[in-house]
From TrEMBL:
Keywords: ATP-binding, DNA-binding, Nucleotide-binding, Phosphoprotein, Transcription, Transcription regulation. The keyword Zinc does not apply. CDD domains: AAA. The modification 4-aspartylphosphate is found at residue 52. This is Two-component system, NtrC family, response regulator HydG. GO terms for biological process: phosphorelay signal transduction system; regulation of DNA-templated transcription. It comes from Sediminibacterium ginsengisoli.
Length: 512
């Protein structure tokens, strides 16, 4: 029997809810204040909490934050009034599962409670299936469980993780409104897909959705791309151009990497946001706009405004609602869901029938940090599908950096720094070679004088020692850069192409 805690200072409301929920086989307790509610939580944790937003002794949002600190996985449903839509938006942002408005409808509250409990149960991590014995047949090895892809529209799919389910509820909440939205997330995390989904669930879905990457616009081209221009307004303007804001009239415009716009363009954009009018470059009349604006950034716009990189007044215009998209490495439950979705897409594109990933490939996917997020995952799946011909994707089809990252996570090179590693054990001819053929040499502190002593050669060439040391340096740089190869190349003071060439060289060296 599920336990429900009601926190409401309206005694009549508590009694009505208690009687109703008990008839539906719930164990129900009530608390008449926020303080009493927290005491009840500490005494016996409930499975779900119904909490009125307006309590005499505390603010509903503050109480929500205290509840989530104590019981982060317990769904909290906020009870609010018809006029409190902004309150509802705020509490969802701060971790509430959902909200219900007064007067309460029995079917609505019961359905909301059951959905919350079902989603809580579904969010429990699945148990890993033990690998089959080596004696299993090749057919058994290739029979992988098929993943069910959950489409949210004809174009988009979303993950099963609790984090993405929160995002879906936020989309449902804000989509029917005309609020401006800021979407925060790392590059490749799916911000444009979320913006498009908001548009598809809005009243503007029959009108255009126009997306533009502000990070790809030079200062000279930004005004023309956003606002359009008239013929002859500047050198090279051989014809009239309609800007993306005007193209989105009646619909939604999505401005990705908004913080990259220059200060001058931000000033002009502020006027558009305030007045809902745009004037083309070189034009002499204003064009009325009916648009919804969604923006995205990989840095917090409030912090950028405090550093003088982004106009604070423009930030406040956009910040009517915000959605944070966690990186893929924090949503492990989503990785294989998206991998199978990208596999289906690539099969259609290439005319192939690859059905699954081998278990060791899934292990690699789940252990990798995915600095490029969904974009990187999609590229890896496309490359692996292209290289595979046997119905399943094998580990040999994966890029070097993924496989090597997985190996390093389980060998002795992950556990201790270079200068503290023990000497390599004696070679055993029957065992496969490790990822790195020899440990990196110990490097003495130059400030400490050491007596000269003979060097043990052990049949290892000077070239091999040099390669090992260089290899280890690259591994350390990759770790420090969270496996972002561009950042690692900067740390090593080489260009990205050189780093790629070196990585290919080491792969060949390990295979010899």
């Amino acid at each position: 029997m599920h336990k429900i805690l009601i926190i409401d200072d309206d005694i009549d409301m508590c009694m009505l809810l208690e009687r109703f929920l008990k008839r539906h086989d719930f164990s129900v307790r009530s608390a008449k204040s926020g303080k009493k509610g927290l005491e009840e939580i500490d005494t016996d944790a409930p499975d779900i909490i119904l909490c009125d937003f307006r309590l005499e002794d505390t603010d509903g949002k503050d109480l929500l934050l205290q509840i989530k600190q104590r019981l982060p996985s317990v769904p909290v449903i906020i009870i609010t009034g018809y006029s409190d839509i902004k309150v509802a938006v705020d509490v969802i942002k701060h971790g509430a599962y959902d909200y219900v408005t007064k007067p309460l409808l029995p079917e609505e509250i019961l359905s909301t409670i059951k959905n919350a409990l079902n989603r809580k149960a579904a969010s429990v991590p699945e148990q890993h299936i033990a690998p089959q014995p080596e004696a299993q047949t090749q057919v058994q090895k290739e029979q992988q469980p098929q993943r069910k892809i959950k489409p949210s529209s004809n174009k988009h799919i979303f993950g099963d993780s609790r984090e993405f389910q929160t995002i879906l509820r936020q989309i449902d909440l804000v989509a029917p409104t005309n609020y401006s939205v800021i979407i925060y997330g790392e590059s490749g995390s799916g911000k444009e897909v979320i913006a498009s989904e908001i548009h598809q669930r809005s009243k503007r879905k029959q009108n255009p959705f126009v997306a533009i990457d502000c990070g790809a616009l030079s200062k000279e081209l930004a005004a023309s791309e956003l606002f359009g221009h008239e013929k002859g307004s500047f050198t090279g303007a051989v014809g009239q151009k309609i800007g993306c804001l005007e193209m989105a009239n009646g619909g939604t415009v999505f401005l990705d990497e908004i913080a990259n716009l220059s200060y001058d363009i931000q000033v002009a954009l502020l006027r558009v946001v305030q007045e809902r009018k745009v004037r083309r470059v070189g034009g002499n009349k204003d064009i009325e706009l009916d648009i919804r604006i969604i923006v995205a950034s990989n840095e917090l716009l409030w912090e950028a405004s405090q550093k003088g990189k982004f106009r604070e007044d423009l930030y406040h215009r956009f910040n009517e609602f915000s959605i944070n998209v966690p990186p893929l490495r924090e949503r492990k439950n989503d990785i294989m869901t998206f991998a199978y979705f990208f596999l289906e897409q690539t099969n259609q594109e290439l005319g192939k029938q690859i059905t699954a990933f081998r278990p060791e490939v899934e292990e690699v996917f789940l252990s990798y940090s995915w600095p490029g997020n969904l974009r990187e995952l999609k590229n890896v799946v496309k490359r692996s599908t292209l290289l595979s011909d046997e119905g399943v994707i094998d580990i040999t089809a994966l890029p070097f950096e993924l496989v090597n990252h997985h190996k390093l996570a389980f060998d002795r090179y992950e556990a201790s720094p270079v200068t503290e590693r023990p000497a390599a054990p004696p070679a055993v001819t029957a065992a496969p070679p490790p990822v790195i053929s020899q440990p990196a040499p110990q490097i003495p502190d130059p400030a400490i004088a050491a007596p000269a002593r003979p060097v043990e050669i052990n049949g290892q060439s000077l070239k091999a020692v040099s390669i090992d040391a260089e290899y280890e340096m690259i591994v350390q740089a990759l770790r420090k850069a969270n496996y972002n190869k561009s950042k690692a190349a900067k740390l090593l003071n080489v260009d990205r192409k050189t780093l790629y060439n070196k990585m290919r060289q080491y792969k060949e060296f390990n295979e010899e």
